[in-house]
Design brief:
Chain B: Belongs to the RANBP9/10 family. Chain B: This is Ran-binding protein 10. The complex is a heterodimer of chains A (673) and B (640). By secondary structure, chain A is an all-alpha fold. Helices cover 73% and strands 1% of the residues of chain A. The N terminus of chain B is likely disordered. The chains are: A mainly alpha (673), B alpha+beta (640). The interface between A and B is medium-sized, with 11 and 16 residues.
Chain lengths: 673, 640
């Protein structure tokens, strides 16, 4: 019974609310245009700041009618403008509102409206378009479907401060891909927007500035153009520098710093330019300070990480600026214990930004520690740093996990840290866990870090092996992604370096020779190189060489021949010849070369090659074959003399290259002894 | 730069002057709130305040370590000192030889402590050579801190050391702070006197806060410890590597933001009525009758004083400012009977002025003798713009009246002569700026009247020759408040304009006499006799006052000054000729106006000016009690 009672009640409440809303909608259909206008104005006043009313009106079908009125020339300028204003107000509501508006094809209707001559109407349409486009639910592609739209928007830029503000804002929100950048660029966005940077209106300045930041991002062409642009006789970069002055609003400083950062990363400004070193970098460091809002701190740290990523000098400067490394430690203190007690709103705010803050800090640490050992040491010495990374690796947020593993990767380049902190904190454990089941971008970073952890001197090597790393890495080599294949085989290579026999056999077994040979014909040269590296590491120390060659000799010799015959670069050939030299160092394995005329001819060929590196590797191989005091050395010497190797060696002793010369002389001595 | 390259002895001197000038300009720009008369800025290292191991050169900007040097006496004394601190020697027993021991450390302080009114203070030190070990410390210390130490080791001493990059906060053990520094590096030290913190910079990069809770009155300090260490200081002689002005701009914006956003909350209405009253009372005070009435109407406020009273005051003021003091006295006696009788000092002052104006030939007592200038010509309804502005420009003048202690505290002390040589640079700049625009104004205002063109040129001549006097006048009128207020006045109130208005009104009287040079009493014999007679009467009045009230040094001086004018053939170009400057009427006028208002039980000073004076004084007080934010809260930055 209770249920029955409740249902009609709810309906009646709803109908009460909708009744008043219905009234507004009904008035839109009045035959008297003057009454319609008054109705729309009343509606405008009713919906301002009232999300419920907005939703009601949308449900009751006000949008199509408003759009209809907006599109009719007969409606009159005032009514059309008011319609656009009401629609703009509706768009200010929830995401669902925006979605409904977009579904009603509001965008083409508003774009059509821009063709009007009436400035007020145009401004109202632009304002509404702006509101729709800045919502994340609106597909930005809608701006580009009609090719005439962008040029028309460009032409409207000269109409008023409002059109400038709205259009720039639309551009900055709808420029998401390199294609978008090029469309705007080709329609003269730079020339049309540059002078708005010195507009009297702060809002226009800001939106123009944001436009440039999205245009320049990872776009060398735009960036190269930007550096040469003059605004009122001043270089654009100087205008940006002025906008970074410390008495300017934070938003402006930060966005100007982004513009210069992007221009620098796109190669348009040198990293040692004063506007980067003395202005942009310190500005971004300031954005990371505790005084800034959480959003600004996230943005500042991410931009700074991007700026300094490729340049060790910038990393060094940033590392000493305003105690940045210690400042970043504060990013991990949200939500703070204080905020939990004081007020729930603050806690909510902190929680929302906590992930973002952590990942931004990890990113910046990763960039800071990318190259300089001293900086890495400073980072690791920061309070609880390793613990934070370790827990970051297993956070629920993918962004944080990725950033944490990036940070770990950056720090793992340090030999000292691998031996100490990494071992103390058993970072390999969460890392291995991360590798079991993670999205590709995380996998790439994690496996790359694992490569470093598997280096011969790393104490983590043992436990990682025991936890089943070999199978995991072998499976990575079968990945679709070249980066993962490289990392997989690279890690195996590191693992095999000076490893004991058992590990080598385990690797070979797990990988399977089929997979090994598949990798030797991998289209990615990095994969090929690392696979050859793995082979070379496997084929070291005499007993190992003989054992592996006795079981896989045939295939290996085949693969070697294939590569030496194929079209490969010098490094690949060199690596291959080194493998041959290793084989020649074996006891029984030597025979595999000696009986292979084809291979011997190839060695001979490379001894006479124009590249010294290849000559060296080939000579090394021969030298191993003719080495005295080894069983059968005499026969091999004789056979190779017959084949004319001595003459070649003799010639090589005259070589201009001292190491090649030495190598050849050492080989010749074997004959003399 | 050309001077630098000259190579001759003169070249060096020129370069020095050039550097000196640049230093002055930069310091003035960086620290506009600092009154160097009171708190001089550090400009070099002090040859007196240093340890003997330190040597100074290059205008006391370069510091080098010279160590114990020769001289047995010094060695002997060191032995004694070492002996007395045997324990210390044990502690540092691993250090052997010169410079290895902490006892070898030596410091030097700058000539002056950092004034709080800097708000933010900055200096840089370039490491010319790290010497043997690079044990260099850069920082701050209070007066009296042991100089046989590196900065940072003792109480009230703070330093950043090059060898380990640590910061030392009044302690022998350092904290990890920044990178190390060595030959070629430029280290900057910034003291924030608003929040009492300090940060360093290295090669233009801020290293972050090093010290907090700094005490006041710290001196820039450097310390060296091993042979060969050489550092150069830059106290503003050269552009800084670090962009300190950018940092200052952030704090300026912060402080101004605090002021602008000062919470008034629900007292908004209250504030508004206070502001309206201030504006209204200001207008009334200076007799802007019509403006005051319409302002009152618009803001629905009431004016305390009656319309007629305001107009009367306005009339009297105009008379004084036109130099017709005799008429002004008459009008005052008529409109405010008893006022002057009760105020003999004021009367005497007015009479003295009247005498001066007689010499000038402007007072009606002498002008009536000149046939060519009918009185009607210089009655002022035709020139309404002139007089009230004077009053407006000199709110502080009321204080110059000897008997009226003014608005603010600490004002009257030593106000008399102090302004003369304090800002030589300032006064010269003000003289040039006041003379040239005013002559331009002048020609504009008269351009419609072609007959006056000649008079115009003669007056502008006079004006250039008078420029010296104008400056004097300016100092005099501003002498009430202390010097920094002089600048405020210059920036805000346009003296030249006022002077201009005055000159043209003066012109009405003077130039009518023809284009001849100025003559005593307008050159009229009868007038001169009248003046002599008036002088006698004045003398008599003085004697009478002496009998009644006892001797009065001020009166005696006034009288003497006025009579001295007769001793010169050209009174306008004589040592006391300044009295003839129309500017001098302003103080008399303001005093009279105040006296009238006071007699009507109205404030003798407009509250607006009181508030302005109060704010200015407060800022100076802040500087004295070491609140650095005063430097970024300038009164003039809120006056437009």
């Amino acid at each position: 019974m209770a249920c029955l009672l409740e249902a009609p009640l709810r309906i009646s409440v709803l109908s009460e609310v909708t009744a008043s809303s219905r009234h507004y909608v009904d008035r839109l259909f009045d035959p008297d245009p003057q009454k319609v206008l008054l109705g729309v104005i009343d509606m405008k006043n009713a919906v301002i700041g009232n999300n419920k009313q907005k939703a009601n009106l949308i449900v009751l079908g006000a949008v199509p009618r408003l759009l209809y009125l907006l599109q009719q020339d007969s409606s009159g300028a005032e009514l059309r403008t008011e319609c656009a204003v009401v629609l703009g107000s509706l768009a200010m509501g929830t995401e669902n509102n925006v979605k409904s508006l977009v579904d009603c094809h509001i965008i083409p209707a508003l774009l059509q409206g821009l063709l009007s001559q009436d400035l007020k109407f145009i401004e109202a349409c632009l304002r509404c378009l702006r509101t729709v486009f800045i919502s994340t639910v609106t597909p930005v592609q809608l701006l580009y479907t009609d090719a005439a739209v962008i040029p028309h928007l460009m032409s409207l830029l000269s109409r008023s401060r409002r059109t400038q503000e709205y259009i720039c804002q639309i551009f900055s929100h709808c420029c998401k891909t390199p294609d978008h950048q090029m469309i705007l660029y080709n329609h003269g966005a730079i020339q049309n927007i540059a002078h708005l940077l010195i507009s009297f209106s702060y809002k226009v300045q800001m939106q123009a500035l944001k436009c440039f930041s999205v245009l320049a991002y990872e776009n060398p062409q735009v960036s190269m153009t930007l550096v040469n642009v003059l605004v009122d006789g001043e270089l654009l970069s100087q205008v940006f520098v002025r906008m970074m002055q410390r008495d300017k609003p934070i938003e402006m400083q930060l966005t100007a710093a982004k513009c210069l950062t992007y221009m620098c990363r796109a190669g348009a400004i040198r990293t040692d330019d004063n506007c980067i070193v003395l202005k942009t970098l310190p500005c971004l460091v300031r954005m990371c300070s505790k005084e800034r809002l959480l959003e600004e701190r996230v943005d500042g740290a991410e931009t700074l990480a991007y700026l300094i990523e490729p340049d060790v000098e910038l990393q060094r400067i940033a590392s000493i600026t305003d105690h940045l490394i210690a400042m970043l430690a504060d990013y991990f203190k949200y939500p703070s214990s204080v905020s939990a007690i004081t007020d729930i709103k603050r806690l909510d705010h902190d929680l929302k930004h906590a992930h973002e803050l952590r990942q931004a800090a990890f990113k910046l640490y990763a960039s800071l520690g990318a190259n300089d050992e001293d900086i890495r040491k400073k980072i690791i010495e920061t309070e609880n740093m390793m613990d934070r990374i370790v827990s970051g690796l297993s956070e629920s947020s993918i962004k944080v996990r990725l950033a944490a593993v990036r940070c770990l990767h950056s720090l793992s380049r340090s030999v000292q840290q691998l031996r100490t902190s990494f071992q103390d904190h058993a970072v390999w454990k969460p890392l291995m866990k991360l590798l079991q089941n993670a999205p590709e971008e995380v996998l790439v970073m994690a496996s790359s870090t694992l490569c470093n952890l598997l280096l011969e001197f790393s104490p983590s090597k043992e436990p990682i092996l025991e936890s089943g790393a070999i199978d995991l890495l072998c499976s990575l080599t079968q990945s679709e992604s070249p980066a993962l294949r490289v990392n997989g085989i690279w890690a195996l290579m590191n693992m095999a370096f000076q490893a004991e026999q058992k590990i080598k056999m385990d690797i070979l077994r797990a990988l399977s020779t089929e997979q090994l040979f598949r990798l030797l014909s991998d289209p990615d040269v990095n994969v090929l190189m690392k696979t050859l590296g793995l082979l070379r590491n496997l084929l070291s120390t005499r007993p190992h060489i003989d054992q592996i060659m006795s079981s896989h000799g045939k295939q290996i010799m085949q693969a070697v021949t294939l590569i030496l015959e194929g079209e490969h670069n010098i490094e690949v050939k060199e690596q291959t010849l080194c493998i041959l030299a290793n084989i020649a160092d074996g006891t029984t394995a030597k025979d595999l070369i000696m009986i292979n005329d084809d291979i011997l001819q190839k060695i001979k060929y490379y001894m006479g090659h124009s590249n010294v590196k290849l000559q060296l590797a080939a000579t090394f191989c021969i030298s191993n074959l003719i080495w005295n005091e080894e069983e059968g050395s005499q026969e091999r010497q004789d056979r190779l003399r017959e084949m004319g190797f001595v003459d070649i060696l003799h010639k090589l002793t005259q070589s201009a290259d001292p190491s090649l010369c030495d190598r050849a002389k050492t080989a010749m001595q074997q004959y003399l002894a | 730069m050309a001077e630098l390259g000259a190579g001759s002895l003169h070249g060096g001197e020129l370069a020095f002057n050039y550097q000196e000038r640049e230093l002055n300009e930069r310091l003035k720009r960086l620290y506009p709130a600092v009154n160097e008369e009171e708190t001089p800025l550090p400009r070099s290292w002090s040859p007196k305040d240093k340890y003997s191991y330190i040597g100074l050169s290059q205008n006391n900007l370069r510091v080098h370590y010279k160590g114990h040097g020769a001289g047995l006496c010094r060695l002997a004394s060191k032995v004694i000192r070492v002996a007395s601190k045997v324990i210390m020697c044990f502690v540092f027993s691993d250090h052997a030889g010169h410079g290895k021991n902490h006892k070898d450390a030596a410091s030097v302080r700058a000539t002056h402590p950092i004034p709080a009114a800097c708000g933010i203070y900055y200096f840089e030190v370039k490491i010319v050579s790290k010497g043997r070990d690079g044990y260099m410390g850069i920082g701050l210390s209070a007066q009296g801190v042991n100089m046989n130490r590196l900065p940072g080791w003792d109480k009230h001493s703070y330093g950043y050391h090059g060898d380990d990059g640590h910061s030392f906060c009044s302690s022998g053990t350092g904290q990890p702070y920044g990178p190390t520094f060595t030959t070629g590096d430029v280290i900057g030290c910034c003291v924030n006197l608003i929040n009492n913190t300090c940060f360093y910079t290295k090669n233009g990069h801020s290293l972050g806060i090093a010290f907090t809770d700094l005490p006041p009155n710290l001196y820039p300090t450097v310390g060296l410890q091993t042979p060969g260490e050489i550092v150069d200081a830059n106290f503003g002689q050269q552009p800084f590597v670090f962009d300190i002005e950018d940092y200052m701009s952030e704090w300026r914006a912060k402080i101004q933001g605090i002021i602008e956003r000062f919470p008034i909350a629900e007292r908004l209405g209250e504030w508004q009525s206070v502001l309206q009253n201030m504006v209204s009372s200001y207008l009334v005070h200076h007799g802007y009758c019509a403006t005051a009435t319409s302002f009152a109407r618009a803001t629905e406020t009431t004016i305390q004083e009656e319309q007629t009273s305001i107009k009367n005051r306005q009339r009297i003021q105009k008379l004084v400012l036109a130099g017709r003091v005799g008429e002004a006295i008459e009008a005052t006696q008529q409109l405010y009977p008893g006022l002057l009788e009760h105020n003999p000092n004021l009367l005497f002052m007015l009479k003295c002025r009247q005498f001066v104006e007689m010499v000038n030939g402007t007072d009606s007592e002498v002008r009536c003798f000149t046939t060519r200038s009918p009185k009607s010509q210089d009655s002022y309804p035709g020139s309404p713009s002139m007089s009230p502005r004077h009053g407006a420009s000199n709110p502080h003048l009321h204080g110059t009246g000897a008997d009226s202690p003014t608005c603010s505290n600490g004002v009257s002390s030593g106000k008399n002569k102090q302004s003369h040589n304090k800002f030589p640079g300032l006064s010269s700049s003000s003289s040039s700026s006041s003379s040239s625009p005013s002559s331009a104004n002048y020609s504009e205002s008269n351009s419609t009247d072609s007959t006056k063109s000649q008079q115009h040129s003669s007056t502008s001549n006079q004006e250039t020759s008078d420029s010296e006097m104008e400056i004097e006048a300016e100092h005099y009128s501003n002498g009430v408040l202390e010097n920094s207020s002089t600048r405020i006045m210059n920036g805000t109130y346009k003296h030249e304009e006022i002077l201009q208005a005055d000159d043209s009104s003066l012109g009405n009287g003077l130039a009518e006499e023809g284009c001849t040079p100025r003559l005593l009493c307008g050159g009229n014999q009868a007038a001169t006799e009248r003046m002599i007679q008036f002088g006698r009467e004045l003398q008599g009045l003085n004697e009478q006052l002496c009998r009644e009230y006892g001797k009065n040094a001020t009166h005696k001086q006034m009288l003497q000054d006025a009579f001295s004018l007769l001793a010169y053939s050209d009174p306008w170009n004589c040592p006391v000729g300044q009295q003839l400057d129309p500017m001098q009427r302003e103080s008399v006028c303001a005093t009279l106006n105040s006296a009238i208002l006071e007699s009507q039980n109205l404030p003798k000073q407009p509250p607006l000016m009181l508030a302005l004076g109060q704010a200015t004084e407060c800022l100076q007080l802040m500087a004295r009690v070491r609140s650095g934010s005063c430097s970024f809260a300038r009164v003039d930055s809120f006056l437009h």
